[in-house]
């Protein structure tokens, strides 16, 4: 998502360079932390991929990713080219949740945390919940 979404969005408000650098550094550090945790420290039994915890987490991750992609698609197509102004998104989970894109990403990372069962994945899921939860609340207001 971090690589594809920016290429798909239309022109909008420019992102401050400092914000971009902080986001990039955070993504690099988090990716390193998750990868190192899974490759060096996490120990899984041989049947882990058949474990209900892994399967439930994987399904949660997959559903969250699908919600996130679909919600982003709705958001990208809210306005016609050159059109400005605020619009309320309709369709998909936006009919039930104000920040469907945020909900999808939160579900995605909690699914990942459940599938991995590491403290690092859980801590990132919680950070995602608090950060995106507050953004979702702002959008709702």
From TrEMBL:
<keyword id="KW-0472">Membrane</keyword>
<keyword id="KW-1133">Transmembrane helix</keyword>
<keyword id="KW-0256">Endoplasmic reticulum</keyword>
<keyword id="KW-0560">Oxidoreductase</keyword>
<keyword id="KW-0492">Microsome</keyword>
<keyword id="KW-0812">Transmembrane</keyword>
<dbReference type="GO" id="GO:0006694">
    <property type="term" value="P:steroid biosynthetic process"/>
</dbReference>
<dbReference type="Pfam" id="PF02544">
    <property type="entry name" value="Steroid_dh"/>
</dbReference>
<feature type="transmembrane region" description="Helical">
    <location>
        <begin position="53"/>
        <end position="71"/>
    </location>
</feature>
<feature type="domain" description="3-oxo-5-alpha-steroid 4-dehydrogenase C-terminal">
    <location>
        <begin position="14"/>
        <end position="141"/>
    </location>
</feature>
<comment type="similarity">
    <text>Belongs to the steroid 5-alpha reductase family.</text>
</comment>
<feature type="transmembrane region" description="Helical">
    <location>
        <begin position="109"/>
        <end position="132"/>
    </location>
</feature>
<keyword id="KW-0221">Differentiation</keyword>
<protein>
    <submittedName>
        <fullName>3-oxo-5-alpha-steroid 4-dehydrogenase 1</fullName>
    </submittedName>
</protein>
<dbReference type="GO" id="GO:0003865">
    <property type="term" value="F:3-oxo-5-alpha-steroid 4-dehydrogenase activity"/>
</dbReference>
<keyword id="KW-0521">NADP</keyword>
<dbReference type="GO" id="GO:0030154">
    <property type="term" value="P:cell differentiation"/>
</dbReference>
<dbReference type="InterPro" id="IPR001104">
    <property type="entry name" value="3-oxo-5_a-steroid_4-DH_C"/>
</dbReference>
<dbReference type="InterPro" id="IPR039357">
    <property type="entry name" value="SRD5A/TECR"/>
</dbReference>
<keyword id="KW-0443">Lipid metabolism</keyword>
<feature type="transmembrane region" description="Helical">
    <location>
        <begin position="15"/>
        <end position="32"/>
    </location>
</feature>
<dbReference type="GO" id="GO:0005789">
    <property type="term" value="C:endoplasmic reticulum membrane"/>
</dbReference>
């Amino acid at each position: 998502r971090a690589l594809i979404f920016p290429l798909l969005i239309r022109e909008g408000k420019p992102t401050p360079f400092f914000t971009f650098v902080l986001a990039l550094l955070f993504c690099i550090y988090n990716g390193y932390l998750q990868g190192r945790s899974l490759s060096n420290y996490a120990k899984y039994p041989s049947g882990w991929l058949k474990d209900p915890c892994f399967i439930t987490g994987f399904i949660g991750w997959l559903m969250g990713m699908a919600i996130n992609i679909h919600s982003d698609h709705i958001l990208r197509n809210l306005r016609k080219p050159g059109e400005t102004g605020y619009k309320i998104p309709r369709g998909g989970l936006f009919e039930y949740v104000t920040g469907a894109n945020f909900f999808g990403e939160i579900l995605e990372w909690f699914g990942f945390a459940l599938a991995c069962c590491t403290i690092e994945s859980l801590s990132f899921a919680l950070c995602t919940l608090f950060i995106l939860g507050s953004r979702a609340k702002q959008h709702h207001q």
